[in-house]
Amino acid sequence: MVPETPLIIRHLGVQQYNHTFTAMKQFNEERNEATADEIWFVEHYPVFTQGQAGKEEYILVPGDIPVVKSDRGGHVTYHGPGQITAYLLIDLRRLNIGVRQLVSLIEKALVDTLNCWNISASPRREAPGVYVDNGEKIASLGLRIRKGCSYHGLNFNINMDMSPWQRINPCGLGVVMTQVADLVNPSPDIKVVSEKLADYLTIGLGYNECSIGLPLPHVSD
User: Fold this and answer.
1) Cβ–Cβ contacts within 10 Å for residue 212, how many?
2) Which CATH code for domain 7-219?
3) Which residue blocks in the chain are alpha helix, DSSP H?
4) How many angstroms separate the CA atoms of 68 and 50, rounded?
5) What is the pLDDT of residues 102-127, one digit of tens each?
6) What is the spatial distance between Cα 123 and Cα 104, in angstroms, rounded to a whole number?
7) Which residues lie below 8 Å from residue 188, measured CB to CB, with a gap of 6+?
8) Which of 48, 55, 184, 214 has the most Cβ atoms closer than 10 angstroms to its Cβ?
């Protein structure tokens, strides 16, 4: 069944993590059965975020990059410019989907997006995220479900400074991280990749179309 309410896509630009984190929680607390689902696309200024399962020993040498406690699932990850972060603010009850199904459709959207640039990738059930064929990880997932609705979402490495990943044990897996720019030359523009990913997420969630929303005032600098 196609949802009756629209899906709203917002492109927020580059934002401080704490601003967006606060806005997500506020959105989820204030939403009701009539509130449209939204996906927020954002790049963050450099920050390490520690999920609910995070262990301090996975943060090796943070240096001058701040570490922020988050209420999402998972361990420590890195956000920085050149990485797509997409926050999925979805009413799971209204769409009649569970958390595992949401994770699977996010992973499929990422795999389909990568395939547009002939990058072969796949998820791992035991370690959520998306991995290219040599085992390196290119996208991470971390969600929070509250009152039947999701927030947080995915990180997708496009064309960023990869050196901060050496300062942590990403997701506690000891995995090597990669990005689109290391696999495709020339690297596609991050806006183009965001649009492709938005299309696949829209389809995966069961929407026929989406509308573009304005940036939120309370997450602007």
Assistant:
1) 9
2) 3.30.930.10
3) 17-30, 92-95, 99-115, 190-204
4) 6
5) 999 999 999 999 999 999 999 998 88
6) 8
7) 117, 158, 180
8) 48
